[in-house]
Specification:
The chain is an alpha/beta fold. It is built from 22 helices and eleven strands. The strands form two sheets. Strands 3-4-6-7-8-9-10-11 form an eight-stranded parallel beta barrel, surrounded by six helices. Strands 1-2 form a two-stranded antiparallel ribbon. The N and C termini lie far apart (about 55 Å).
Length: about 425
């Protein structure tokens, strides 16, 4: 009957789009009410035939509340309005190039229901000139998900934000934090912190073109432009463009002389600066990022007034440790996910089979799962089996399961805190 109601909603929208008379609209609305009150009030065959007939005459627009799924290369990308009831950004997984692709995000979503996912950074030139389905497509299960854009031209960013919204992303994020020399040469990333007025104009242009939130991810400073006053000027200026959410990496970026990796490690973390920023801009949503490696640290920042916490590489290398209890410990969601590692593996198997049929390589998916058994007995054998066998002819989902057989069954099935303590003990021994 749920399917009948969905078909009827689809049909009603179709008739409205076809400019039927207002009285007919009222009639259909009344039928919707009747169908909600009494599921037998309307013939299912009539509803389906109406939906099929009307659906053949139009395609659902991006702004419609009726979701349209496009299938491309075995992957479905959602071209629809973002879901309305989204969790807040209390916990986020950072955008990471070559890591947080659609397969990684799908895997991580099986571990946590509420944690926000962010795409890899996608440049405006790539979107405007490249294969948009390949760059922007994602699986509907990934919500809530944000698209991170790289660029500095307000008009191009506005166009790309609109495209991202049409794909169903729940947020558009502007990268003003990447310290890569290649990115800086393209005049976007962290170097934009020196041009707050330009960032303001970029945000304003994007907000004008989309209804979903537009956010900014940035550092606390760059090179010699690292005073707190300049940071406040940057935030207040960008706020004028309509940005209400700032994701702040608590390090400055040194654009000349340090690699991106060194910029994640050498400049000291200054969490107090981000906390002070929240105190001085209480009206804004401030999310702290940088060097946070577990949920206890995340909770500490939230308790000190941060609106959210973004975790990067730790969430990738130790996904189960970071995310398996996030729904309960961070979101207090008793209905959130609380799965064993084996449950997660079992949910991945049919997904892998589907993607392999579509031509996706096994390694494209399993490479993101290497850390699932991090710190567990048999964890190294699990990773070794995957590394040695995913490229072999005839490999498939059974290859993943053979790797899992290296893990003791009691370890695969347990999800309690005692297991967490055992993992920490093993990790300390490995170090």
């Amino acid at each position: 009957r749920c399917c009948d109601r969905n078909c009827f909603t689809y049909a009603m929208q179709a008739l409205i789009r076809l400019s039927f008379t207002f009285p007919l609209f009222l009639f259909l609305a009344s039928l919707t009410k009747e169908l909600s009150a009494d599921q037998t009030a309307m013939s299912p065959s009539f509803v389906r035939s109406l939906a099929i007939h009307a659906g053949s005459k139009f395609s659902t627009p991006a702004s419609s509340s009726c979701r349209r799924i496009r299938f491309h290369c075995g992957m479905s990308s959602s071209h629809s309005q973002a879901p309305q009831d989204l969790p807040d950004r209390r916990l986020c997984v950072a955008p990471m190039m070559d890591w947080t692709d659609r397969y990684d995000r799908y895997f991580l979503r099986l571990i946590s229901k509420n944690t926000w996912m962010y795409s890899e950074m996608v440049t405006t030139s790539a979107i405007l000139n490249g294969n948009q389905d390949r760059l922007l497509g994602f699986f509907p299960q990934e919500h809530p998900i944000a698209l991170q854009l790289g660029g500095s031209d307000p008009e191009d960013l506005a166009k790309c934000a609109k495209v991202g919204e049409s794909y169903g992303y729940d947020e558009i994020n502007l990268n003003v934090g990447c310290p890569s020399e290649r990115v800086s040469t393209g005049s976007f990333g962290a170097c934009l912190m020196a041009e707050p007025e330009l960032v303001r104009d970029c945000v304003a242009a994007m907000r004008e073109s989309v209804k979903v939130p537009v956010t900014v991810k940035h550092r606390i400073g760059i090179d010699h432009l690292d005073s707190y006053d300049l940071l406040c000027k940057f935030v207040s200026t960008v706020e004028e463009g309509g940005c209400k959410t700032f994701i702040v990496h608590a390090r400055k970026a040194i654009l000349k002389g340090l690699s991106p990796k060194e910029n994640r490690e050498i400049p000291p973390l200054q969490y107090h600066v981000v906390h002070q920023l929240k105190q001085d801009f209480p009206q804004l949503e401030i999310i702290i990022n940088g060097g946070i490696t577990d949920l206890s640290q995340a909770r500490a920042h939230l308790e000190q007034g941060m609106d959210g916490v973004m975790i990067g590489r730790s969430a990738y290398h130790e996904p189960y440790k970071i995310l398996s209890r996030a729904d309960m410990e961070i979101y207090n969601d008793v209905n959130g996910y609380h799965k064993s590692r084996q449950q997660i593996i079992e949910e991945m198997l049919p997904f892998i089979d589907e993607q392999l049929k579509a031509g996706v390589s096994l390694n494209s998916i399993t490479r993101h799962m290497q850390g699932l058994f991090h710190g567990c007995p048999g964890g190294r054998a699990f990773r070794r089996h995957l590394s040695e066998n995913v490229h072999k002819e005839g490999s498939g989902s059974h290859t993943l399961w053979r790797a899992v057989e290296n893990i003791p069954e009691e370890v695969r099935l347990r999800v309690d805190e005692e297991m967490r303590r055992e993992e920490e003990k093993i990790e300390s021994m490995e170090v």
